[in-house]
């Protein structure tokens, strides 16, 4: 009987301990790191890892029922398959961006009104590069036992040349810098997009077997 009487007190004490641990692990001191400095990193981490989830599914759905066999047997080029997959993945990543960018502005109290068109351009350029590389590596790892582990291991190093200039450009925009200061980063993103799309399209036909 005495044990039953102490249960509510034990549970309340456990909640206090859990609250204490969470307050230690997940604090955000706005005086230590400003929202303007923190927001670009958060934004591009969201894009990168949400993109990986979508890329993983782009081939898994067809492999499960061997629908990929019909796609490979269709009278279309492998390059067309790659572009179609990449376009679908780009739509997924763009949908994440449409939700994530306004949400970021809301939660971090970052004014986005004046820079939203430029930020959308940065996001689109970065998404093209991420999708170009990710679609290729998703096709390479889909038939392996450790596809969920291999895809991030292979793709993330190639994401770095895309994410870094995108994050730098985003940080400059959020800091109120003029668009001219961001132009060099945009040119770098566009150059990586051209290289990655061309290289991945050329490599894709060799990643899938009949």
Describe this structure as you would to a colleague:
The chain is mainly α and 210 residues long. It has one domain. The chain has seven helices and no strands. The longest helix has 30 residues. The chain is flat. The relative contact order is 0.13. The mean pLDDT is 78.
Spatial gap, N to C terminus: 70 Å
Strand tally is 0
- Describe the largest sheet: none
What is the number of domains?
Answer: 1
Report the helical percentage.
over 70%
Radius of gyration (CA) equals 22 Å
Order of helices and strands: HHHHHHH
The assigned structural class equals mainly alpha
Overall spatial form: flat
> Unreliable runs, pLDDT <50, ≥5 residues?
none
Mean pLDDT, to the nearest integer, reads 78
Total helical elements: 7
Give the amount of beta strand, in percent.
Answer: under 5%
Short description:
The protein is an all-alpha fold and 210 residues long. Helices cover 79% and strands 0% of the residues. The protein has one domain (35-206).
Blueprint (SSEs and pairs):
Layout: H1 2-25, H2 35-64, H3 67-73, H4 78-107, H5 116-141, H6 147-174, H7 183-203
């Amino acid at each position: 009987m005495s044990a039953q009487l102490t249960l509510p007190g034990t549970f309340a004490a456990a909640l206090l301990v859990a609250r204490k641990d969470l307050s230690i692990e997940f604090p955000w001191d706005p005086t230590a790191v400003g929202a303007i400095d923190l927001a670009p990193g958060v934004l591009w981490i969201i894009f990168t890892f949400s993109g990986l989830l979508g890329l993983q599914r782009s081939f898994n759905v067809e492999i499960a029922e061997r629908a990929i066999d019909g796609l490979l047997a269709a009278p279309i080029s492998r390059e067309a398959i790659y572009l179609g997959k990449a376009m679908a993945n780009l739509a997924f990543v763009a949908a994440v961006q449409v939700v994530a960018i306004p949400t970021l502005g809301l939660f971090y109290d970052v004014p986005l009104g004046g820079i939203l068109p430029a930020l959308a351009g940065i996001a689109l350029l970065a998404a093209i590069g991420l999708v170009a590389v990710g679609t290729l590596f998703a096709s390479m790892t889909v038939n392996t036992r450790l596809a969920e582990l291999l895809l991030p291991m292979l793709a993330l190093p190639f994401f770095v040349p895309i994410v870094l200039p995108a994050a730098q450009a985003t940080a400059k925009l959020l800091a109120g810098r003029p668009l001219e200061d961001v132009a060099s980063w945009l040119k770098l993103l566009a150059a990586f997009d051209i290289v990655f799309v061309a290289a991945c399209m050329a490599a894709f036909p060799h990643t899938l077997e009949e």
